[in-house]
Amino acid sequence: VRLRDVGQVVDTYTEPLSLTRVDGNPAVLLLIHREPGTNIVSVADRVAAKLEGLRLKLPKEIRLIKEEDQSERIRRELATLGERAAFSLVVIFAVLWLFLRSAWSPVIILSTVLFSSLLALNAFAAAHLSVNLLTLAGLALGFGMLVDNSIVVWENIARHFAQGEPAEAAAVRGTREVVLPIVASTFTTVCVFVPFVYLTGELRIYYVPFALAVGFSLLASLVVSFTLIPTVARLALRRYGARSGRTIPAFGTSRLQELYQTALRRLIPRRSWVLVLAAAVVAVSWWVFDRYVTRGPIWSWQERTQLGVSIYLPQGTPLERADEAARKFEKLVVGRPGVERVFTRVWRERARITITFPDSVVYTAFPLILKEELTAEAARTGGVNISVYGFGPGYYRGGGSAGQFYLYVLGYNYRDVCRYADELAARLRLHPRVRNIKISGGRWWSPDHTEIVMQPLRARLAQAGLSVMDLQTQLSAYLRETLGWQQIRLGSREKGSELVSYRIKMAGHERFEVRDLANVLLRGKNGAVVRLGEVARLEERLVPREIVRQNQQYRRTVSFEFLGPWRMGNRFVKSVLATTHLPPGYKLERPSFRWGEEGEKRQIWQLIVLAILLVFMVTAGLFESLTRPFLVLLALPMALVGTFWMFYLTDTNFDRSAYIGVVLLIGIVVNNAILLVYRIGQLRAEGYQPLEAAVLGGGQRLRPILMTSTTTVVGLLPLVLFARPEQSLWYALSLATIGGLTSSTVLVLLVVPLLLSGPIRWPRVRARSRSRGEEV
């Protein structure tokens, strides 16, 4: 026979593996990537120019739509960074004027920012460090810290000048007195960034350039403060003194210093109670943080508000069926007011629809309403696994959301693990706020498969003259859509030929259903003809797409949505973990998808430990003592007080960026303690009694401490005031630094002078022995 007698030969295109649509229209996705080392903004500009020329040549019915442009975010960030830097400089100038009460002093001190930044940029070039968002953010974050060294030098020079010393002598002596504490305080800040070079993965990508930028700028500010400031101060003070006499109102004994010194004299006799109260404040702050502050970010895919619909169909579903399911949801959203873009990708067995919104409706109820409508439509669709998820600030910051949560059931017996997962799901269904519960074998986005199980009835097979091998052979033509991938050469070699792939399919394969399988006719060796349903049982059941083992234990994933704020859902999950009791060998745990991975946790804790160790080594070398560094390190728990309360009061998640902020705090907050400890030590070496040395040294360092802390805080304020947490990589870092520096400034000014004012007599506590009743 000829091939055309038993089949049909069709010359056509191969079936597509996927489909793409934008707003319901067919689309081709074009991805353009820049080469490493090139400027993404300039590359994007050149690509845009080429596309504009191409747009004019296309037919009218063809449109070019820019779906995503990474350079747009970088442009916005650069513009925002410049605005925040300018705002920081203005606010820092206002703070300096408030303390110094003159216009030329803040200008001189702020000039260190310019010169330090220029020196830092030269260091970038020497270190082959590119100028990008991360390094520029490091410079902007350091604006408030760049003026700290200059403030201390300037204040000490002016204090000597106000006491009657000539301008030249005041510049030399004032600078010399603060060389060691300034070098130590700068190096304590810089040294905490040294362990950053050992970071790996995403932590290294984000934070190593930031650490290098801050480190280079601080070292540059150290050079400027010891060269530019004494030189300018000598000239400025000489002219100021010749014009207006010796009185400089900014550096006289102020009312604030008098109040502070009076408070120290009154607190020193009661210092044991003050120290106990400070310890209690630290303990209460930790309790509040541990109980009420969420650690780890709210997990989301995008910073933009998006609504996603994921459709999973049974195994073997053709592309056309998946496309029909996707179009059913597209009809509900395409062209609807309030919807900006509908992006659809369809594959065999699955489809994904992404819906974006214009800025005008992001924080309205519309995204939540649309999500509920699509969820209701998914519930009415049978035979398909459909998930509807909302991502971005419109859902997690818009007043309410349905947070997605995941739990792992682990154990050594697979059937028991599946049973415990089913029991957990049944228990979760009892809660009125829980819905869309799914159980999967491994990853939450990998739902279980549906498979058809055939169990042969051997006695009936024997009666029909069939074996199990005969059954499999005769069914293969119906069960296998593709009998083989082969190629045929068309044309002669002399005139040119090509290899064309061909596939062999059974007629009607696209309409073959499960019920048709039971009616398949089988022919036995004895000539008997029977239906498959007469000699075998067919059963449809769910099976895991994959079987996952974690540390040699089987794992099942239970995912669900919680209607309500994410914080409430987080507490609910914690209560489920606390009240679920499994037999030995089985456990229920909550996975984490971002910073909480064990590798990153370990890196950050190692970073914190190394930073504390390096600060201890630097301060021990400065004071030539192993005990005084502990006084300096007391600033760390005092800083954590403000950090804990800041995250509690602002209801912000303590994510990995906040942990990096704690590392930065380790190097910053000890600076105030170093200035106090070093100055009080100098006065005691000059013959002052411990009490007077503590009071006098605290008063002399009050102004520079307040000025440096205030300028650092206001330099970070723009990153907190003008940014949303989900849109800024530095929001939590700045929040941790602001809170920690504020609390440490207040507590260090109280606690450190009290500890250095003499031996401490702890309050006696009366108690009675239970056995003998005598007083102890």
General description of the model:
The chain is of the alpha+beta class and 776 residues long. It has 29 helices and 17 strands. A 6-stranded antiparallel beta sheet has the order 2-1-4-5-3-6. α9 packs antiparallel against α22, α11 (255-267) crosses α27 and α26 (670-685) packs antiparallel against α27 (690-716). 35% of the residues are buried. Mean pLDDT is 79; it is low at 242-253, 298-302, 397-402 and 765-776.
Summarize the structure.
The protein is an alpha+beta fold.
Notable traits:
single chain, 776 residues, alpha+beta, six-stranded antiparallel beta sheet, five-stranded antiparallel beta sheet, 56% helix, elongated
Sheet with the most strands: spatial strand order: 2-1-4-5-3-6
Low-confidence stretches are 242-253, 298-302, 397-402, 765-776
- Main beta sheet strand tally, sense and closure: 6 strands, antiparallel
Strand proportion, as a percent range, falls in: 5-15%
Rounded to an integer, what's the Rg over CA atoms? 36 Å
Distance between the termini: 113 Å
The average pLDDT value, as a whole number, equals 79
Q: Helix content range of the residues, please?
A: 55-70%
Global outline = elongated
Counted by DSSP, the helix tally is 29
Number of strands: 17
Broad structural category: alpha+beta
